[in-house]
């Protein structure tokens, strides 16, 4: 894959390289906060709040399980804690899959930009062969 990137890099002009560098990969925090924008933002906010609440209540249930003197109460609190921690993990994986989808969409857009730049540099009479 690196060889292909090098070939594409050699084919681009300095102006094209500058344009592509401005649309590079954002940092992790920018990617994480990026999932809270767009058409699915409301669902991700709901998942984030639900996951945070599940974690907080799960930590409370875990504390109650440790402090319980009755074995049956400890089991009840423990089962509740496990289920709430699983819910928190589920919401985090849901948000992680959306973050990965955003990364893929960003790479597709960069690829479209590269193709359009290469196509605009091609001579008018030439045609691109499809193999």
Explain the overall architecture.
The chain contains five helices and no strands. It is mostly helical and 131 residues long. It has a domain at 29-117. Helix 4 packs antiparallel against helix 5 (71-121).
> What's the SSE pattern?
HHHHH
Q: How would a crystallographer describe the biggest sheet?
A: none
Helix content: over 70%
Radius of gyration: 24 Å
Number of strands: 0
Distinct helical segment count: 5
Distance separating the two termini:
19 Å
Strand content: under 5%
Poorly predicted regions: none
Overall pLDDT metric: 84
Overall geometry comes to rod-shaped
Structural class: mainly alpha
Write the layout of secondary structure elements.
Blueprint: H1 2-11, H2 14-22, H3 28-34, H4 41-67, H5 71-121
Transmembrane segments: 42-63, 75-95
Keywords: Membrane, Transmembrane, Transmembrane helix
Notable characteristics:
131 residues, mainly alpha, 5 helices, 79% helix, rod-shaped
What's this, in brief?
By secondary structure, the chain is mainly alpha-helical.
């Amino acid at each position: 894959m690196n060889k292909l990137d090098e070939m594409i890099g050699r084919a681009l002009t300095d102006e094209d390289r500058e344009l592509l560098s401005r649309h590079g990969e954002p940092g992790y925090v920018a990617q994480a906060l990026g999932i809270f924008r767009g058409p699915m933002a409301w669902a991700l906010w709901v998942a984030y709040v639900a996951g945070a609440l599940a974690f907080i209540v799960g930590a409370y249930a875990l504390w109650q399980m440790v402090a319980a003197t009755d074995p049956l109460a400890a089991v009840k609190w423990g089962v509740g804690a496990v289920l709430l921690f699983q819910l928190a993990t589920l919401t985090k994986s849901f948000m992680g899959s959306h973050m990965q989808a955003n990364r893929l969409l960003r790479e597709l857009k960069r690829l479209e930009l590269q193709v359009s730049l290469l196509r605009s540099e091609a001579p008018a009479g030439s045609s691109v062969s499809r193999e």
